[in-house]
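User: Hi! I have a protein structure encoded as tokens and I'd like to know what sequence might fold into it. I'm fairly new to this, so please keep things simple.
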């Protein structure tokens, strides 16, 4: 049954977004535009995203000024917007209601009877994309909101019908506790975002609160390979669907796993020990078999046929910044991945190693000082499947450099663990180093949640220029 959303109020006609150029904010703006709202927004600089919104009828202002508020009835802001932002201050002085991004996403979820929220420390974007493609193949016409760009929907958002809504559910600052899922996927629970959470027990308690948001007739799809998830299930009061690669007790399992020359996985999916389907993925890695199982379990619960589940998974070729092939020059393959947590790095490198490359060059850009400092030992042990590791400067994101941690320290600790690692501060120097040392057949893998992907693009461009000259 549809829950009443504040968006149903006739008081709100014009919604203004502060930071509209963000991947999530832009998608939410598009959804509200489709719901009949007048939408405006501001951002610090123009982009392809802001241009796309302008073409759809959104008024965009570059730069932040209190005049941008105009006659807005509701103002949406991101966590990155500070309290002294002139637009936010103006809205509050005028008594205009303000909502953070996560609260708005939760309010949108209320409007759909079957909202699917995909949570976990890793794998959210991939699994959300897999579920989206399966539901599209099943003609369920979902509205989709992804934290990345999926070519099959032409970006990060798709406007669909009024029944199904699919979105990622991020645990950072407990944003996902503002959501209203009918079905929630919990992929894994690990120590991360330790600038907010006190410890793993704090993280686990937050995930349990999230699961408790599911109605009794709803579903949680839980990975029982993860001991932290397993420990929570005794306190769950909705329908539980389990999956796993290592647990014989899981409802959904995978057997007959194999990989082709690209590292792409094939497996047989089993439900309650019964063979259901043979699946051939077009993406590499054991971790993506687990993501596929989560997607199968969720879509089966939503009534999708096994035939359409198979079609959806086998049509998925990846998402931007998730083991994304950037190009090949001089028979050197350049791939980019968003991995920025030790577990993600291990999984990505393991997937790369299955591709049978002579050498794997890893260019890693640590993401945030807090994460790098608190997980330093874990990071230093995460590169076992790389032949050469280049560590560049930390991408600060929302944080300030206090001088407590430096990328040099990480490179030293990786070397102390027996790996070949160096620190190079700037992208130009990294590109020159790779041009001098990488050979035919090698893989260059850029990793991180910042702008490290530019290294691969610069390398390919330089190689092309050399070939032309």
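Assistant: Happy to help. Inverse folding works backwards from shape to sequence: for each of the 469 positions I chose a residue that suits the local structure. Here it is:
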């Amino acid at each position: 049954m549809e829950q009443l959303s504040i968006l149903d109020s006739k008081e709100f006609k014009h919604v203004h977004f502060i930071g509209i150029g963000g991947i999530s904010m832009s998608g939410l703006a598009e959804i509200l535009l489709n719901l009949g709202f007048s939408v405006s927004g501001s951002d610090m600089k123009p982009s392809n995203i802001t241009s796309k919104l302008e073409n759809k009828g959104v008024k965009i202002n570059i730069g932040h000024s209190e005049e941008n508020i105009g006659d807005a009835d509701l103002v949406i802001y991101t966590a990155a917007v500070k309290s002294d932002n002139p637009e936010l201050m103006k809205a509050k002085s005028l008594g205009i209601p303000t909502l953070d991004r996560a609260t708005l996403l939760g309010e949108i979820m209320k409007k759909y009877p079957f909202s699917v929220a995909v949570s976990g420390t890793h794998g959210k974007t991939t699994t959300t994309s897999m579920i989206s493609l399966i539901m599209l193949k099943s003609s369920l016409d979902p509205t989709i909101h992804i934290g990345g760009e999926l070519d099959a929907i032409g970006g990060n958002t798709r406007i669909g019908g009024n029944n199904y809504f699919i979105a990622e559910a991020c645990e950072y600052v407990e944003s996902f506790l503002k959501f209203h899922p009918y079905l929630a996927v919990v992929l894994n629970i690990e120590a991360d975002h330790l600038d907010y959470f006190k410890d793993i027990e704090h993280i686990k308690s937050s995930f349990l609160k999230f699961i408790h948001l599911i109605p009794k007739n709803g579903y949680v799809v839980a990975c029982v390979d993860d001991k932290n998830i397993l420990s929570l299930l005794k306190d769950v009061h909705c329908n539980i669907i389990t999956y796993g690669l290592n647990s014989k007790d899981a409802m959904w399992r995978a057997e007959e796993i194999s990989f082709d020359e690209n590292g792409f996985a094939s497996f047989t999916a089993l439900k309650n020990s019964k063979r259901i389907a043979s699946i051939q993925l077009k993406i590499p890695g054991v971790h993506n078999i687990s993501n596929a199982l989560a997607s199968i379990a969720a879509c089966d619960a939503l009534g999708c046929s096994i035939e359409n589940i198979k079609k959806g998974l086998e049509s998925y070729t990846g998402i931007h910044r998730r083991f994304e092939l950037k190009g090949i020059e001089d028979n050197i393959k350049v791939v980019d991945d968003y991995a920025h947590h030790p577990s993600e790095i291990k999984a990505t490198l393991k997937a790369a190693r299955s591709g049978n490359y002579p050498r794997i060059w890893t260019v890693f850009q640590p993401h945030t000082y807090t994460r790098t400092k608190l997980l330093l030992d874990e990071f230093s042990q995460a590169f076992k499947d790389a032949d050469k590791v280049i560590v560049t400067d930390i991408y600060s994101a929302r944080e300030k450099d206090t001088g407590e941690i430096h990328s040099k320290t990480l490179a030293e600790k990786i070397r102390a663990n027996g790996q070949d690692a160096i620190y190079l501060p700037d992208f130009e120097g990294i590109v020159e180093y790779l041009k001098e040392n990488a050979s035919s057949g090698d893989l260059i893998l850029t990793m991180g949640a910042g702008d490290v992907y530019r290294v691969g693009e610069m390398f390919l461009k330089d190689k092309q220029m050399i070939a032309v000259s």
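A useful reference point when you look it over: The two ends are 65 Å apart (CA to CA). Feel free to ask if any position seems puzzling.
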